[in-house]
Write a structure and sequence with these properties.
The complex is a heterodimer of chains A (617) and B (170). Chain A is of the alpha+beta class and 617 residues long. Chain A is 53% helix and 17% strand. In chain A, helix 6 crosses helix 8. The N and C termini of chain B lie far apart (35 Å). The longest helix of chain B is centred in the middle third of the chain and has 18 residues. Classes of the chains: A alpha+beta (617), B alpha/beta (170).
Chain lengths: 617, 170
Amino acid sequence: MTTSSATLDRLFSAAQSDTGIDRQALAGLLVELARSADESIDARASGIASTDPRLTQLRGLLLGQEIATLSRLTRQFDDPAELAAIVGRVLPTALAQAWAQNKSLGPILAPMVEEATRSSIRRDPGTLINILHPLMGPAIGKSIGERIDGTFQSLNETLKHSLSWHGLMWRWEAWRTGTSFAAIVLKHTLIYRVEHVFLIHRHTGLLIAHVAAPDAVSQDPQLVSSMLVAIQDFIRDSFSGAEQGVDTVRLGELRLWSEPGPFASLAVVIRGNPPENLHQTLAGVVTRINAEHHDALRDFNGDSAAFANVEAALMECVELQQRAPRSTPHRARWAVALLALALIGLFGRWEYQRWQERRHWNAYVAQLRAEPGIVVAETGTQDGKWSVSGLRDPLAVDPQTVLRRTSLDPSQIVSRWTSYQSLEPAFVLRRLIDTMKPPPTVSMVLQGNRIVALGSASEAWLRRAHATTEALPTGTPPIDFSAVEDIDTGMLGKLRAAIQSNQILFDNNSPAPSQENNAILDKVAGEIHDLAALASTLGVTARVMLTGHTDSKGSEIFNLSISQGRAESVRALLKKRGVDPSLLAVRAAGPYEPEQNEDSDAARSRNRRVTFTVEID
Amino acid sequence: MTGTQPNLQKKICMLGSFGVGKTSLVRRFVESVFSETYLTTVGVKIDKKIVALGDRTMTLILWDVAGEDDISPLKMSYVRGAAGYVLVADGTRQPTLDVALSIRQRIEAEYGALPFVLLLNKSDLREQWQIAPQTLEELPSKGCTARLSSARTGEGVEQAFRDLALAISR
């Protein structure tokens, strides 16, 4: 190899564009190379020209391909778009390999994912909601469903027992303990016991663990577990919409509840009537087991040795139970029974009294209704008392009188009566008797709906009676006076006629009757006596008017005076003969009521007289 | 309280045409608690077979799936999670072998390759035997070996379960 230092110098003089290359080092390297071929070369890497086309040529020869590749890579690295495209191609593979080699990628990515999620939610919560909806929807629905089932269960049991004897006792217990009635009802009715708990691997249906209550028996749990999964599969395959599988199966008093988890599910056999909120407890257990044994469950291959400690969690479920409350001790029960009997007795007695009272009350009201002149408008109870109101004719029987005949307590009765006038014939009759005051010779009676007056009465009374009846209101029963005879006919009439036929004659100017009148006076006295007795018997008042008369001779004053004297002397003479003077009235007629025309002395002597007039009232 | 002792369990499916004798195999050689009416109602019956493998045992949980016929195809969902399966064909009926092989294809399509054994049942009925020796010779090229079994004589059954358990535990 022959190389002169001039050649090297030319070689070392790099082109202007060769900036960035350590020319000094390159020159040194080439000199070392030349020396290894010829030791005589004593060139120094100094004075290298700033540009040398030969170096460029050499470099092109030696590194042409690499330079092209390098410049392409440099370009790609410098262009963000191209760099992104390259990284994008390898990123999935790179992540997969990084994950496979080292699990620490998860924690590294977690904050970024969290931040990304946060910012996504801030920007538009709808996106995340849409993503989570298929997952959360059924879970929330199930949870709400269970809560509603629980509420309905509580409501059902409460309603069922609200009116029973148990219900009353439980109300007492709720009041005594300050708990809600619904809670007490559930405590007494939801008697249950968890008998078996199977933890089942969802994918294979294999049993991971099984725990049973002390005396609970079942078939081989491994077979039962798989059969349960098979039945779930069967239902899922058979019915559309059953993707969730069954979560409750009921067979008599046994219930099978299934609580699914992501890898392992819980199948729980419960005897009795469990509360709906037991679902939540079981769901909590299955969630905890799935979380605590996440990896072991995911990789489960049929070896349950890794799950020995899971039984503790299952035991929690088996210990879930609600025992029937201890029954009341015998003595207390007897006391309760006696108390109940006493209460029933008291209640029965009270109810009997109430019944009796009601019976008496009804009888009283019926009697009032039957009474004429009483109209019962309303009956009822008021402030614990019986009340009756209506119309009452003042002539009707006093309701208090009727009440006294019953065994009702008058203080327990409130009565309100409004007065009215009844047109009942009996009342009309009584009113007529009150207003007409019929003489004892007249009796007024009811004949059917008619009022009939019987007996005899004076004409004056009959006139008054007719006037009274004409003033009565419409609707009054007919009143018949046709049967009343004139009182003047009959014995009284005869006596009157006899008394009135008598005359006592007087001498001229004499106020006293002559002796020959004594027989007439005796007779008249006897007749008036009879009249008084008869009138007394008939209940009428009979009075005798003694009218004194004179003849027309003499002065008027003298004549009036002497006629007064004649009447009074006859009165005195009759009194002397035993006649009650109160029956006798006197009147002076003077000469004004002559019996005869005074054309003779005989006629004049006939006019000097005292006459008798009988007045019957 | 009763707890389960640590134990290796595997889910195994018994598959084949209707009437090939799966249930007879199971009835004679496994622990069974459920009535056979489950097969006609739910379409599956669970039984258990404990196989000794050296110093430990493996519990095979056998899903005796109702036999496939023209009107009721195999419910593939019952195969989910199985560690292996037993294909049963009836040596006296050639079509049942075709069905068994078709079932295998379907399982591999849906769940991937799983250990299995193929039993040609009713080996005691020699005079009615239909499957030609040539057919059996061709089977290894299809990736399986058939073995004869008889639920009546017990031939091959125990061995089949043990072989399957070994294949699974490998």
